[in-house]
């Protein structure tokens, strides 16, 4: 696609997996990228080096998005480095699976803190600080449609993200900022693969009509579309990037 001059994208949870793929894709498309990480400093720094060695511009910014003060500092760091933020990609998230009956307080609280409170914190900051004509891209999940057992708490956090996506799109009227969400299906990342037997992975890969797992680059391509000029008339929507699984 055409290069996008002087635009800045902040990607949360960007040290690995889908977040890293999104960061590299946006950098190739011409964005200056703020690589957010919570604890993986070495991975985030390595990603910044890869982007810069390919001719892009990036910085790493540490912040636990569940902490509103850290989120505010992260936006301030982005503004100090690049002058402002045009695109927020809310990729950071965790997935802990258990039946509702077996979900303890810690499982519930941690997923709410990162997936819901964290997204709220970044959305609230972006609503105040994002430059006009910007883009906000949240991460939901296709589990909000699949609704499998053991995904109760995780799916609930992502359904809430979809609701905030549509509402914030309306609240930002007059600023030409679009707010959309991506809802990936099963994607070959450490988050998805960890702890799953190969039989389960193979079965999930066959569920979609395209008969494979998504790759981080598949999701990054969808994010790049929503971050770019060709998506200007798409607003308040959730795009299921899942190979047709639902």
In words, what does this structure look like?
Helix 1 (17-28) packs across helix 9 (216-227), helix 3 packs parallel to helix 4 (105-129) and helix 4 packs parallel to helix 6. The chain has 246 residues and is an alpha/beta fold. The chain has one domain (8-239): 3-Layer(aba) Sandwich (Rossmann fold), CATH 3.40.50.720. It contains 9 helices and 7 strands; from the N terminus they run βαβαβαβαβααβαααβ. The mean pLDDT is 96.
Brief descriptors of the model:
246 residues, alpha/beta, Rossmann fold, 7 strands, globular
State the major sheet: 7 strands, parallel
What's the total number of strands? Answer: 7
Low-pLDDT ranges: none
CATH superfamily: NAD(P)-binding Rossmann-like Domain
- The total number of structural domains is 1
Q: Write down the CATH class.
A: Alpha Beta
Global structural class? alpha/beta
- Our count of helices gives 9
What does the overall shape look like? globular
What is the share of helical residues?
40-55%
What is the fold's blueprint, element by element?
Layout: E1 8-11, H1 17-28, E2 32-37, H2 41-53, E3 58-62, H3 68-82, E4 87-90, H4 105-129, E5 135-139, H5 143-146, H6 152-171, E6 178-182, H7 190-193, H8 198-207, H9 216-227, E7 238-239
Parallel strand pairs: 1-2, 1-4, 2-3, 4-5, 5-6, 6-7
How would you summarize this macromolecular structure in one to three sentences?
The protein is of the alpha/beta class and 246 residues long.
């Amino acid at each position: 696609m055409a290069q996008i001059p002087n635009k800045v994208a902040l990607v949360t949870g960007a040290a690995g997996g889908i977040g890293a793929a999104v960061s590299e894709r946006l950098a190739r498309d011409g964005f200056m990228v703020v690589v957010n990480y919570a604890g993986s400093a070495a991975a985030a720094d390595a990603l910044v080096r890869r982007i810069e060695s390919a001719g892009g511009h990036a910085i790493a910014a540490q912040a636990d998005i569940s902490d509103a003060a850290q989120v505010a500092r992260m936006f301030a760091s982005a503004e100090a480095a690049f002058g402002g933020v045009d695109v927020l990609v809310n990729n950071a998230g965790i997935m802990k699976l258990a039946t509702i009956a077996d979900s303890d307080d810690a499982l519930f609280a941690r997923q709410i803190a990162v997936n819901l409170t964290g997204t709220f914190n970044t959305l609230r900051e972006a609503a105040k600080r994002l430059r006009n004509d910007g883009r906000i891209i949240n991460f939901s999940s296709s589990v909000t449609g699949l609704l499998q057992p053991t995904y109760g708490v995780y799916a609930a956090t992502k359904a809430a993200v979809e609701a905030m996506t549509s509402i914030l799109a309306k609240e930002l009227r007059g600023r030409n900022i679009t707010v959309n969400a991506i809802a990936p299906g099963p994607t070959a990342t450490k988050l998805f693969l960890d702890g799953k037997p190969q039989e389960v992975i193979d079965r999930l890969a066959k569920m979609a009509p395209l008969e494979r797992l998504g790759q981080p680059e598949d999701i990054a391509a969808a994010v790049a579309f929503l971050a770019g000029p060709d998506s200007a008339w798409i607003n308040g929507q959730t795009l299921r990037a899942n190979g047709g699984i639902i």
